[in-house]
UniProtKB/TrEMBL annotation:
Residues 537-615 form the AMP-binding enzyme C-terminal domain. InterPro entries: Ac_CoA_lig, ACAS_N, AMP-bd_C, AMP-bd_C_sf, AMP-binding_CS, AMP-dep_synth/lig_dom, ANL_N_sf. This is Acetyl-coenzyme A synthetase. Residues 29-86 form the Acetyl-coenzyme A synthetase N-terminal domain.
Amino acid sequence: MSPAAQTETKRFAPSADTVARAHVNAETYDRMYAASLADPEGFWAEQGKRVDWIKPFTQVKDVNYNFGEVSINWYADGTLNVAANCIDRHLATRGDQTAIIWEPDSPTEPAKHITYEELHGSVCRMANILESLGVRKGDRVVIYLPMIPEAAYAMLACARIGAIHSIVFAGFSPDALAARVNGCDAKVVITADEAPRGGRKTPLKSNADAALLHCKDSVKCLVVKRTGGQTTWIADRDYDYNEMALEASDYCAPAEMGAEDPLFILYTSGSTGQPKGVVHTTGGYLVYAAMTHEITFDYHDGDIYWCTADVGWVTGHSYIVYGPLANGATTLMFEGVPTYPDAGRFWEVCAKHKVNQFYTAPTAIRALMGQGTGFVEKHDLSDLRLLGTVGEPINPEAWNWYNEVVGKGKCPIVDTWWQTETGGHLMTPLPGAHATKPGSAMKPFFGIQPVVLDPQSGVEINGNGVEGVLCIKDSWPGQMRTVWGDHERFQKTYFADYKGYYFTGDGCRRDADGDYWITGRVDDVINVSGHRMGTAEVESALVAHAAVAEAAVVGYPHEIKGQGIYCYVTLMNDREPSDELMKELRTWVRTEIGPIASPDVIQWAPGLPKTRSGKIMRRILRKIAENDFGSLGDTSTLADPSVVDDLIANRASK
Ligand code: WT7
């Protein structure tokens, strides 16, 4: 059942303690929210002071949402350096404070506590190494690393010298890596020998080797030794980070960057086959990441904060590295998985490091919930003060379990709705301000004006108790600025369908109280374990196989993953369906895209439901995948209605 359809109206009010401690309570929320809309320039000028500027800005906001002329600028004439904001400015007051707690995959390997002083040295060394490899301001560097401290060093080293990083999640295949290296014309790829995860090792360097066969010869590869596992080595292309770090100077002057210089590119799936390179810039992004980190998680000096995401996703960018470090926080970085060595690992780590704020995805909660309460109860979670979720709608069962079993009913839950494109949270309850409802993202963050539009007419639907597509009126500093190398596509994707608004791609409901519930994507993007997957990407991977004539991919409800990947496959005339071929296609998709795109279900489809003009009717395929045969709707416009009966009769079992 989708959260929007459920009728749960129970509210969970914050405790008096939570309200008293909070940066923002109900009264301040209302006042600040009103101020942020009444005078955006004044509001964001004030918030701009959260970061240290080399040259202070005099302009705040310069935004045009008109299709054809879209341009988004914040603090445009200011200059700053992100690494200096995340490290140097803290040295005088908290040089000895832990910046990063690193918890390795194996619980028997010791954790590391990296102080701000040490972080400064390591980032400078990495920055100097990159410069010695020829990286200059504006150049692109691809980071393909496990969750190790060097991933944070690499990001901050790029920021320090003004290079633009593009992180590729270590679960992506060599092909996907090559496409991203070429997509942004990167000079250097930073990788590791191997990535330990859940007791297994992914051979990252050999993946990078395979990828680099499809890239320019000039691309260099900087290799971090994580396990010491064997790798092949190409002289004058591969460089040993650990060796170079011994020699590199531990000082590197931070580059003076314009507020609108790109900070990073992050590829994300859309409704077409090609992932797009989301571009975030320097000033506005940092202000927004820092502000949301402090306020949404009610972060206070001395707190230990843990976000379980991977730096390969935007959550890791904004809420493991940039937001927390800009705030001088202690941020925990975890290399492993929630279920290794057992389903108690998250809670063991929380207890071990006395975590105060814990931020994870609903899919992890659902998986752990299935393992019983014993794994939680074994560990002392008394330091936890706040819980967060992100990535997909959370079902009330998972919410209640999180609240009762993990939070012991005393930790407010922030259900943060946002996107790679938004840079930071756009809607979330604030812990000291709002009584939460399980499954609702509740309220807009400061400066955010959500609107519900009629999907057909594009007209704003006012009032409460309404549902439609979710758009955002006006800009905020953390918003993406363009698609790398394709501003046209940026405008077409986000500003064409509903003129004058930013279109989120999500549906939403505003309930009778005016609180927001995200109902899921309204485009051909599915959400698998909180990861965004374009159905078109999986389809193009499938049809690239010699046996496949045609493929159509849809999402279906999956108990743990939220949505699973359901593939209808039509084979070439001369090929017969078989279990072996099914296995082969699964492996094929994993190699083309990566394990995260692994099909959950493959159904052989002698024909696909198409209109007479040849358009595949996905609505019907979705219904069949959902086992919902009663409401297939009008099938009379199909070129051959009998294919539907065949698909129903042979529906794959899940
Ligand atoms: C899509 C964005 C933002 C970081 C992780 C995902 C869905 C995200 C929620 C939430 C309901 C959510 C939306 C959104 N989503 N958070 N709290 N409740 N849905 O980033 O890969 O860019 O995906 O994830 O559908 O559009 P992403």
